[in-house]
Amino acid sequence: MSATIVEMELPSEEFALSQTLSRVEDVEFEVERFVAHDDDHVMPFVWVSDGDGDRIRTELEADESVENIELVSELDGEWLFRMEWVDHIETLIHILVKEEGSILAAFGDESGWQIRVLFADRDGLSRTYDYCRDAGLTVDIRSIYQLDDGREGRFGLTDEQQDTLVAAYERGYFDVPRKITLTDLGEELGISHQALSERLRRGEKSVLKNTVIVGAED
After folding, report:
1. Cα–Cα distance for residue pair 151/157, rounded to 1 Å
2. Which of 14, 67, 106, 207 is most buried, taking the most CB atoms under 10 A from its CB?
3. Residue 153, pLDDT above cutoff 90
4. Exposed, middle or buried by CB within 10 Å (0-12, 13-18, 19+), for 5?
5. Secondary structure letter of residue 217 according to DSSP
6. Which of 67, 60, 55, 137 is nearest to 95 (CA)?
7. What mean pLDDT is predicted for residues 164-173?
8. What is the reported pTM?
9. Nearest to 147 by CA among 36, 2, 1
10. CA distance from start to end of the chain
């Protein structure tokens, strides 16, 4: 069996922080790390992006899904909170405790939560999907990767895209100022200027999607 990475979407109203998301316009949450100790709560570190930190703190304290909020850091209009989630966490508990899965990334706003999960095998995903269906919880599976797919599974890259990005990095294409032009790099790789440009753009988009922009659509 092979470990499986899954991108899934969950509606905000069925997830923790739903009250805060419904009350504060344009607020965004990004989870830095999850810790699950038992079947009753999880303890995430959550980055919050919003223009009014004091209001966010007030709304979080009023949110029935949250307890024990602590401001850990503030940086350039973003706040890192440590908190306990105690409600609307059934799907998380199943993944973290029952399946011993890992949450690789989680991003939430008023449109919903986008989560990337690592399961030990494909059966863990199947059991999670069945659990959510039986419990009346909504889960939308967007992408499934097997780790033995190699580069494609980890970052959505083809071998050509991976090799091209590595070559561009090593030859200084991404340096400021650049140490090599697109034309010269293309000549070294034996491909046209246009083909190289398209391959780099597609590779960069795949890396961003699978590392920075959680659950972004093509």
Report:
1. 6
2. 106
3. no
4. buried
5. -
6. 137
7. 92
8. 0.69
9. 2
10. 28
